[in-house]
Amino acid sequence: MSLLEVRNLTKRFGGLTAVHDISFDIEQGKIVSLIGPNGAGKTTTFSMLTGLVKPSSGGIHFQGKNMVGLPMHVVSSQGIVTTFQKTKVFTTLTVEEATLIGTYNWVNTRLPDILLHNKKFCLEEQKARERVKEILQYTNLYEKRKLKCTGLSYGEQRILEIAVAMAANPVLLLLDEPAAGLNHTESQDLMNMIYGLRDSGITILLIEHDMSLVMKISQHVVVLNFGEKIAEGTPAEITNNEKVIEAYLGAGVEEE
Ligand SMILES: Nc1ncnc2c1ncn2[C@@H]1O[C@H](COP(=O)(O)OP(=O)(O)OP(=O)(O)O)[C@@H](O)[C@H]1O
Questions:
Q1: Can you list the GO cellular component terms from the UniProt entry (predicted)?
Q2: pTM assigned to the model
Q3: Spacing, Cα 17 to ligand 1 middle (Å)
Q4: CA distance 93 to 100
């Protein structure tokens, strides 16, 4: 059984079919990329996987459980976690506080525990703070933990988005264009961070436009075009696939 099984997934917005009858599997422990020209249906597919958008038809099974129709917070508590786009939502929070928010997914306290500030609350809070410390050390943000999120550079803010997602203990982590706007060194750091996450047992699915990154990092690539899956395979197979070459040339995208 694959970690994630997507079967005949379709999403229509009124008369427009954004995603049409796509199927693919994601194996545990792999780094998989979802690519395709603009408007191919990548974001819509992500939104269906996270529970943000309900599919018109088709199935999503994660660790054998049907995810279709479950709200986002339930999908997330099952282990499918995505990054919050734009750390701007955290303007008033410090780096440490923002990362602590990510632990909502597993910290086991109820309102009475919080209000009473009882022993259970203190133990859970300590566990969460220890995990946040580990994550901030891993992402090289620990020294900046007391800074407001807005005090970080653009590249650091993108890494913070990943740190917050890590704090939710993902089984499958969805990254939407993690390298967008990063310089060469930051992209290299990001790539090493993604390898590290994979080595710690997290499976990764990413949407990425940076083809050199996709081809280096992915073990498997799924290609969409006009809402349909046109190919999947290893980076080498995808690079030589006629349909993929046509889709990218047709879209006027030049090789990087
Ligand atoms: N909420 C929506 N309502 C109507 N149409 C939508 C909606 N979301 C996406 N679409 C349309 O669905 C199609 C696929 O969009 P989607 O954003 O999934 O593509 P994408 O591959 O992520 O594109 P990009 O690389 O440009 O982000 C597009 O034609 C888009 O205009």
A1: plasma membrane
A2: 0.90
A3: 10
A4: 10
